[in-house]
Amino acid sequence: MLKWDGHTHTKFCYHGSSDEQELYLEEAIAQGFERYTMSEHPPLPKGWVNDEKLMEELAMPESELSGYIAYAKEMKARYEGRLEVTIGLELDHLPGHYGYTRRFVEQWGHELEDVVYSVHYLRGAGGMRCIDFTPDDFKEGLLSFYGTMDGVINEYFDHVETAIAWAGKLPMRKRIGHLGLIRKFEKELPPINEALFRSRMEALLPILQDAGVGVDVNCAGLRVPTIGTPYVPDWFIAECIKRSIPCVYGSDSHKPAHVGLGWDWFAAQTRGQWG
Which class of enzymes does this protein belong to (predicted)? Predict the structure, then answer.
């Protein structure tokens, strides 16, 4: 069983840590990881969200993307023989702006070994809203806009289905990011219709299988008080394994102390994937 952290961030993340990459990689080595994917957020279209301050924190500016790729290549070379560092991005699903993402893929795709393709944004009050910003912003920007949690959940999964189909066309290894992120603030929101959530998750299984897209088993929810569990449920992992859909652990680390969080849980769920 390859010990691989497939979803991590770097000093190029404006809502993360300024720590140098060596601190992350040395922590990964200390914990016995064999592969480590750097998967930073790429730039976003100008004005993607209406809040200018938030916009500055979401992703690096376009002028820094080449620097990030060079930084990742440097780490890959420096740690060769100690840790397999793979170069990646966490691409955002950008409805109506697929050309923006396609441009990055065309320019940098030959360098990319891994892509985590994530749904972070839904149309809401005043424009695009982050689904994982704050509980209050979720209520004001999404719950008020769609009227019910069922409405938000259905909109989210409609976008996830489209995202999987789009990611399936990418030439490198790809997986859908943190399925279930829509539940991040569930302890501060109206109750989720569990039957609806499960049915929409189940409907993703044949789509993932047909598209050849894996799953980012994202354990960052363990450090979020408003959910306290991994974003991908154990039953869904079991169903993926039955269908040979790759499941890759992701710490979603935004600081070195996050590396490895939840690995033991992930390993217990996925032993069957490797026999």
Answer: hydrolase
Domain residue extents for the chain: 4-274
For residue 243, give Cα distances in angstroms to 76, 168, 198, 238. 32, 16, 17, 9
Q: Render pLDDT for 142-180 as a digit per residue (tens, 0 to 9).
A: 999 999 999 999 999 999 999 999 999 999 999 999 999
Interatomic CA distance for residues 69 and 66, integer angstroms: 5
Amino acid present at 233: P
CA nearest neighbour of 72 among 120, 8, 14, 4? 8
> Which residues have C-beta within 8 Å of that of residue 146, sequence separation ≥ 6?
124, 152, 155
**Which is nearest to 193 in space by CA: 226, 153, 160, 231?**
153
State both tokens at 99: 């050309």
Residues in the chain: 275
Q: How confident is the model at residue 272 (pLDDT cuts 50, 70, 90)?
A: low
Q: Listing from the earlier edge strand, what are the strands of the sheet with 173-176?
A: 4-5, 35-40, 84-92, 114-118, 173-176, 214-218, 247-250
Distance CA 177, CA 252 (A): 10
End-to-end CA distance of the chain: 9
Spatial distance between the Cα atoms of 273 and 1, rounded to a whole number of angstroms: 9
Tokens of 133: 């910003």
Among 78, 64, 77, CA closest to 14: 64
